[in-house]
Amino acid sequence: MKKLFFILLVGLMLGGCSTNTAGILASSTGDLKIDSPAFAQKVKVDQLKMRGQGGSLEGVSTVISKISTDQHLQYKFTWYDGTGFTVDDETRGWQPLTLHGKESKQVSSVAPGINALWFEFYVREAHSN
Fold this sequence. Notes:
Blueprint: H1 2-17, E1 23-27, E2 32-34, H2 37-40, E3 43-53, E4 56-65, E5 71-80, E6 95-99, E7 104-110, E8 118-125
Antiparallel strand pairs: 1-2, 1-8, 3-4, 4-7, 5-6, 5-8
């Protein structure tokens, strides 16, 4: 009996440690990848745009809530050069984003250098540790 209890306890602890970080990835080149269909039922990524901004590019994305309750999310822009290598990805971490029911917000990022030509935008649910 004690052995069964221990196995169940370990299983619950390991299950509690696994966090689903899947979300939605959209690219300024037009690609869209949905890692979590359940998340895509609650959030939509729309209107990815780029424009020149003071000698660099600025990327913009609109994140839309499809549900009527608050959502705590994280997003990240990753910039790439013409050969597909990331440009200064080390300095750009996940940013918090709260969407209230049915709200849409526009988020943006300025490219970290003049050799950045396109970006990927990723959004996921924020999980507290």
